[in-house]
């Protein structure tokens, strides 16, 4: 399993997830840096993300939208608050309206990503996300991510069923 | 999505309870830790009785619980509300697990 551990803080409304990959730190950094690679994993297959702007530098911003199965779009933006290539990345993540303008009233998520080498060719990635309120977290989940969740649930059920058979 | 179903009157009570700024503020304080009504009252420019009234509106909407401890009344955010937060974090965790699976697939293409 790529995911090593997760930690949830109910009071601080934060989630920290730790995963390891069989790839060098520089390689894992690219999946954040390169918008074409980022698009392949940020949104679920049913709600793929398209990054039309990705200024991957401190103070830079990104804008993206996710397109649903019905052609419905929900927009988002990132603002990079710290970038220390290839080990650390911090950004705020929020919702945007159809024109790409931030919808401040929905709040933002702050994410801190760190990459470290566990051994040659193996990288540990830690992503810590914190939310402003439970409402915001709920919004985050509701906007365009439902389908992805159902898939994930299905995948997990499938894995558990396979294990049960072994 | 599995969000607890509320009856219409429960929703009305919930909205009414949260329509007031002081009550929203009280809920926020009670979520982070328990408070006595008198400790809460110290934060607001209003009488103890007024704060107590706000607390009972929140209590009727099931947003907080009140428990007598000695001479104090202890206010705490409803455990269901906390459970809801946990549920939401669980769902968010799934989003990330799925992303990590996709990253793993992308990285596997290199080989």
Overview of the molecule:
The complex is a heterodimer of chains A (166) and B (111). Chain A is an alpha+beta fold and 166 residues long. Chain A has helices at 25-33, 35-38, 134-142, 146-165, and strands at 3-9, 14-21, 49-54, 61-67, 73-84, 88-96, 108-119, 122-130. In chain A, strands 1-2-8-7-6-5-4-3 form an 8-stranded antiparallel beta sheet. In chain A, β7 and β8 form a beta hairpin. With 111 residues, chain B is of the alpha+beta class. Chain B folds into 2 domains: 7-77, Winged helix-like DNA-binding domain superfamily/Winged helix DNA-binding domain (Arc Repressor Mutant, subunit A, Orthogonal Bundle), CATH 1.10.10.10; 79-111. Chain B has a 3-stranded antiparallel beta sheet with strand order 1-3-2. In chain B, α1 (8-18) packs antiparallel against α4 and α2 crosses α4. Chain B is elongated, with a radius of gyration of 20 Å. The A-B interface holds A 2-3, 6, 8, 10-11, 13, 15, 17, 19, 21-23, 27-28, 31, 37, 40-42, 44, 125, 127, 129, 134, 137-138, 140-142, 145-146, 148-149, 151-153, 155-156 and B 1, 3, 31-32, 81-82, 84-86, 88-104, 106-107, 110.
Q: Which tags fit this structure?
A:
heterodimer; A: 166 residues; alpha+beta; Alpha-D-Glucose-1,6-Bisphosphate, Chain A, domain 4; disordered C terminus; B: 111 residues; Arc Repressor Mutant, subunit A; 2 domains; three-stranded antiparallel β-sheet; 5 helices; 64% helix; disordered N terminus
